[in-house]
Structures are given as structure tokens and as C-alpha cells.
């Protein structure tokens, strides 16, 4: 299979590039990334010169470039996105441009080229918050911040191409990822580095907000499975069931790094801060997937990466 991976120099995208090259001996990958602040060629160290890998610097909104790249591939996996909620609150325009307009450009080109599969990478945040129970793939979308709203828009756009044009679309919605190569603005790498440097760890509100954390390698295995064995037109939730409050995550980081909880600083809560996300995952489990790493195992590996 020849695969175009957009956003492949980012955190999850680069992890997926490495995973596919290691697990599938005949697959070829074309990585497209604009190398904005969150993407780096360093994340592709060991893959850049791989004989089955080609890197292209470019923007998914560039219709001519995207059309040229997609005509020679079997599948598209779209990781490319603006993804930081705080940044979306400060200004939504780049999120609309990349997450919606960029996805539309890819869908148009994929439809014209007749690709075999188009995997749209999404997030559990499109469902909004849930105080009790868990979201299934059939639940209504109720995004509550600009980032989530643009990802929900991209999901709906992708599904419309499947319904209207017959484009073979699949969608995954994953819980919070963590692991090596994640940008240091994100909670876990930021707090690991702060803890190691003796700096304060700013926790929003009272730290009671709950997220479901999945180690990035587990997510990549699930994404690869959906790409190859998922049913066209379906949505697949991917989660670990490892629910943690932000305060519990913070305390686990401090314990793993080996420093005092005195570094915790409670700060004013973020605007529109969803209280809890949680996913039902029976569909992806029916394909034969389950997480291999516990939160604690993944955190130890992540701390080792950032402090090495």
C-alpha cells in the first residue's frame, strides 16, 4: 500500500509513520507537512532517509500540490490539524483554515483520484463533555470549543463525501494521546519538563477535569487496524479506559520524576473547559484491538524520553 500521511511530522502523525514503516515491509509512505511550530523533521529521525519514505514540505490547502501527491497513492491518512485548544480560544481562524478548508481540499483531491481509503483522524472532543457514562460513535456531536468545532466540521464534511460521492471514508475519534515527540505545550510533556526543572505546574481550576489517556503507540496500532480492516463509512472510537483527573495526572508525573507535590499551582480555569470525556470502544475492540500499555507504563516511557 502507498499511503499519503498528512501532518506526518507532528506528534501522532510521525509516530504513525514510524509504526507503518516498522510493521509493514512493503508499504510506501509519502509524508506531507507544513512544518509549522508543532511539526518537525526531528520527529521523523530514522524515517527521512528510509527507502520507502518520501517527505514533502507543503500545506494541505495547496490544491495543486495535494492533487499531484494523491494521484499516486492508495490511501490518505489525514493527521494535519491545528490542535491546541488554548490557541483556538485565542483565535479560531487558523483552525478553520487548516482543519476545515484543508480537509476539504484533501477530500476533493481524493475523490477525483479515486483512492481506496481516506482515514480522517479526529478526536473525542467533538462529542463535548459527558458527566456520566461514555460516548458511542452514534452519539450526536456537541463541540464546545473552536478546536473541537472545526474537527467536528471536518468529520461531517468527510462523511458527506462518503454519502454523496461514495468516497471510502473512515473516521477515528481518539482520547488524549501522550508519549514521545509530543509538543511541549501539551500537558504531560510540559509538566514533565517543568517538574524536572523545579518549575511550577499550573493546573486549571481545581484539577477535577477528567480525560482518558492513551499511549501513542497503542493509538497507532488502532489507527493502522482501522485503515486496513475498518468498515467503510464507519466511525471508530479509540480509548484506553484509563480515566484520570488532571490533578491525578499531575501527581503521577511528579511522583515519576521524583519531586514534591509542592510544585502544583492551581490557576484560573480555562474558558469552556469540558469536565469529562469518555468513550465506548466496542467497535475497535471487535477488530481485535486492545491497549497494550497501562497509563503508568506509558508515563514511565514518556518521562524517560523527555529526561534522557
UniProtKB/TrEMBL annotation:
NAD(P)-binding domain residues: 4-302
Gene Ontology terms: biological process: nucleotide-sugar metabolic process
Source domain of life: Archaea
One GO MF term attached to the UniProt entry: dTDP-glucose 4,6-dehydratase activity
Signal peptide: none
Cofactors, names only: NAD(+)
Pfam families, per database record: GDP_Man_Dehyd (PF16363)
SUPFAM superfamilies: NAD(P)-binding Rossmann-fold domains (SSF51735)
Keywords: Lyase, NAD
UniProt xrefs under NCBIfam families: dTDP_gluc_dehyt (TIGR01181)
UniProt-recorded name of the protein: dTDP-glucose 4,6-dehydratase
Organism, as annotated: Halopenitus malekzadehii
Lineage: Archaea, Methanobacteriati, Methanobacteriota, Stenosarchaea group, Halobacteria
